[in-house]
Amino acid sequence: MYLVKCPSCKNNMKYQPRGSLDKKKKRCVYCGKSFTIHSNQKKSRIIKKL
Ligand SMILES: [Zn+2]
User: Which of 32, 39, 47, 49 has the smallest CB count inside 10 Å?
Assistant: First the structure.
């Protein structure tokens, strides 16, 4: 489980990836915008691993 930040509304939410973390899409539960989850920590929307 990861804590990720929406690039649009800046809200944090939990994310549980299935399989590899690379190029996963997550839909924001707050604003509905989809964004990509990167395995690269520098490009990542990941705040921290839970
Ligand atoms: Zn959002």
Answer: 49
Q: Where are the domains of the chain?
A: 2-49
**50 Cα–ligand 1 center, Å:** 20
Quick one: 42 exposed, middle or buried, by C-beta within 10 A (0-12, 13-18, 19+)?
exposed
Phi and psi angles of residue 6, each rounded to the nearest 5 degrees, phi first: -70, 130
Is the pTM higher than 0.85? The answer reads: no
Going from the Cα of 25 to the center of ligand 1, the distance in angstroms, rounded, reads 13
Map residue 30 onto helix, strand or coil. Answer: coil
The pLDDT tens digits for 1-50 are 999 999 999 999 999 988 877 778 999 999 999 999 887 777 788 999 89
